[in-house]
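Ticket #4471: structure output looks truncated?

Reporter: J.K.
Steps to reproduce: submitted the chain below (282 residues) through the standard prediction queue, then opened the result file.
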Amino acid sequence: MPDEVALPVRRQTPNGICISPPELPASALESGADLALGSFHKADGSCGYGGRLASSDTTSVGPGPTASARLASARQERRWESRRDLIVRAAVDVFAEMGLEGATLDAVGERVGLTKASLYYYVKSKEELLGHVIGHVLQAQEHAMAELTDDGMSPEERLRGFCLGHLRSLFDDPAGRIAAQVALSGNKDELVRSLFHEYMGRLDAILTDGVAAGVFRPVDLGLARNSVLSALNAVTLWYIPDGPLTVDDVGNGICDLVIGGLRPATEPASSRQQRPISGGGR
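Returned output as attached by the reporter:
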C-alpha cells in the first residue's frame, strides 16, 4: 500500500473567504505522487480541497515489459490529470478573488506550490486554464440537463429542463459564477468560444424542434438563444441565495417569460393593435 499524507482541508471564514491550506511543496507535485481530490465544495457548504497525497506504488504488474509499460503510462497519465485538476480548482478561487483580468498564473502557481515554469507543464496560458474551469461547469450543466429531460418530452418541457439545469449548475459550484462572468463578458478567446458554442447547440436544438412542432413561433435563432442564456447567466449578478426565491423559482420564472414569448400568436400580427409603452419615457 502507498504511504498517505493527509492534506489539510480548506476552511471558509465567516465572511465567505476561503482559506487555503499551507502550500504543497513543489516536490510533492513534481514527484511520483497520485493525488485524490475532493470536490469544489463539501457537504457542509464550505469550499476547498479534500483528499490525500499518496506516493505511487512502482511495483510492476503483468507478465512482461509490455504490460508493465502500459501500467506505468496509465499511472503517469492519472498523476498528470490529478495535478492539473488541483491547479484548476485553485484557479477557481484565484479568479473569484482577483477577477478575470487580475488573476495571473503566478497567483495560481503560488496556491499549489508550483513555480510558473513548473505550472507551464500543465497549462500554457491563463486562457487555457480558464477554458478548463469553464469546461468543468459546462459538463455539470450537461449532466444536470440530462437528469431533467428526456427524448419523450415536449420542446417546452425540454426548455424548462435546460433553464433549471443551467441555473442549478451556476449555484451548485463556485466555478459556476466564474463561467457566467466569462459568458457575460464577451470573451473572444477561441478556446473559450468553442466550449460555449457546443453547449449553445443544445439550446438551439430545443428551439428549432419547438418551431418545427408549431409550439414556438419562428424567431431569429441567435437572438432567442442569446437572450435566454444572458437572462440565466445574469442571475448570478443579483440573486440572493438566502432571499425569498429559490434557484428553481427563478429558473421557472425566467422560463415562463421565455415560453410565453415564444408561443405562436393567437391572432394575425396585422390585426393586433400596437400598444404604446407609457410612463417614464422622454
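Triage note (M.O.): checked the attachment and the full C-alpha cell line is present. Residues 65-102 form the longest helix (38 residues).
Status: closed, working as intended.
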